[in-house]
Design goal:
alpha/beta, DNA polymerase, domain 1, 5-stranded parallel beta sheet, two-stranded antiparallel ribbon, 46% helix, Haloacid dehalogenase, HAD-like_sf, PGP-like_dom2, HAD-SF_hydro_IA
């Protein structure tokens, strides 16, 4: 009898690569500002977190961010920069998810927002199709590491936390899941994640 019946995956850093530096480089290019200074000034605090919970609109987020960073660009250029962070799929992830889907229920839980949601579901549609459901923070009104984010996923799955396993590259989010009795793995590489699965009794055939 298998130990887990469901797997919960983070997206950025686990399913696909991304770099926030690309955002500030784009904004610097179109605003005439310095990318390093923009990154230093950017605030991942209250405004950013409200946007990830869907509590403020894209227009409010743009205005507050541009005021904070002291530049003015078009909404289109703002969004182009904001969405430039996405890179390529993690090599091997498609084959892994394809194999896992035949045995486990697969869902994703990601901190995201209304502007990003216009981009990444299209870019990575080929891999997202392997998930039964994708839980986006701005849709469910809660973000990792908040307890309600994990509860929303567990309630949907209708299973005990102990029968799920969670994969995320953020140690804070992993610790939060563990406090809810969800088996959790901090992902540092694709190979390490696959090895962790094997060590926990997950049989893998196609992954090296």
């Amino acid at each position: 009898m298998k130990k887990y019946c469901a797997m919960i995956f983070d997206c950025g850093g686990v399913i696909f690569h991304f770099s926030s530096d690309r955002i500030f480089k784009h904004w610097a290019l179109v605003s005439g500002k310095d990318a390093i200074e923009l990154k230093k000034k950017f605030d991942f605090g209250e405004t950013y977190q409200k946007f990830e919970r869907g509590e403020i609109s894209p227009s409010v987020f743009r205005k507050k961010t541009m005021n904070k960073l002291e530049f003015k660009i078009s909404d289109e250029e703002f969004d182009n920069g904001w969405n430039s962070m996405y890179m390529e799929l993690v090599p091997g992830i498609v084959g892994l998810l394809r194999e896992l889907r035949s045995t486990y229920r697969l869902v994703a839980l990601t901190n995201t927002n209304a502007i990003h949601a216009e981009r990444w579901p299209i870019l990575f549609s080929s891999v997202l199709e392997y998930f039964e459901k994708v839980f986006s923070s701005h849709v469910i009104g809660a973000r990792k590491p908040e307890k309600r984010a994990y509860e929303t996923v567990l309630n949907y799955l209708g299973v005990n936390p102990q029968s799920t396993i969670f994969f995320d590259d953020n140690p804070e989010f992993v610790r939060a899941a563990e406090t809810m009795d969800i088996s959790s793995v901090r992902v540092t590489s694709f190979k390490q994640m696959a090895n962790e699965m094997r060590e926990r009794g997950v049989r893998l055939e196609c992954v090296v």
